Predict the structure of ABC-2 type transport system ATP-binding protein.
Amino acid sequence: MIELSGLTKRYGDTVAVNNLSFTVRPGIVTGFLGPNGAGKSTTMRMMLGLDRPTAGDVLIDGQHYDRLRDPLTYIGALLDAKAMHGGRSAFNHLLCLAQSNGIPRSRVHEVLDTVGLTSVARKKAKGFSLGMGQRLGIAGALLGDPRILMFDEPVNGLDPEGIHWIRTLMKSLASQGRTVFVSSHLMSEMALTADHLVVIGQGRLLADTSMADFIAQNSRSYVRIRTPQRERLLDVLHGAGTVVVETGGGVLEVDDGKPEHIGELAARHQIVLHELSPQRASLEEAFMQLTAESVQYHAHTDVPMDASPGVPGTPDVQPLQQWGDDWTRS
């Protein structure tokens, strides 16, 4: 279990993480979401003692990370797939980690086999693709057979088979009663993987709820209906006290309606239905709705591709260039 209490991180006048409190529980996959710049990576670094909080606390199974003996046996983490010595082989990279935490050499072979890197175990990591680096990082997280796993963007660089594999792995780990905490911008994959969501924006907690409740609370749910007997169906629905929204193309929509009830009502009145389908927003749509006011970097799609400085209607690029120079110096 991971417990955050009032966790805050400031960099000068900038508040990267603002009084975050939540608990990551065992037995489920918890997704960690937020727009770019929301403070996700900073939060995860503070969980592992890589950044010191300005205020607040983080406990790993009731202890501070720096007080854990052989920490890889408590919590395994992948934060950066390239955080390894490129001159070492995959085997030796993992062996160094194992020896530093009292983990037997045999475990290195086991995790290499688990992530599918046995055939390249003796090759240097600097020659690995991003996907192979991700697999090696995941092997490092699994090395101590920990009860807590934490992954930051684990599917980056993976092919479809690899994405399916890591999704299955995380679900399997959670089913074993382990704590699994994963951050990702790939909403379609998160929707298939996570059971619970923690969402932050501008360093603040926006949501801490189940996947189903998050989508329901941040999107519109309705039933879409098409029928050749539109006017008759409208009379029947209105008579039953059902509020109907008439849209274009002869489509009717009933907010928060139950399709089985509507279907039974139509059947009793011998009304033919060509479509009766429940409509729910995707995780991406619900996420965009909740975080709309928390997005720090907005792109614009209405800028002409062939625009040139000085041409009427073309945005002045100087502020962007100045921002880039200031960012480079910081």
Notes: The chain has a mean pLDDT of 86.
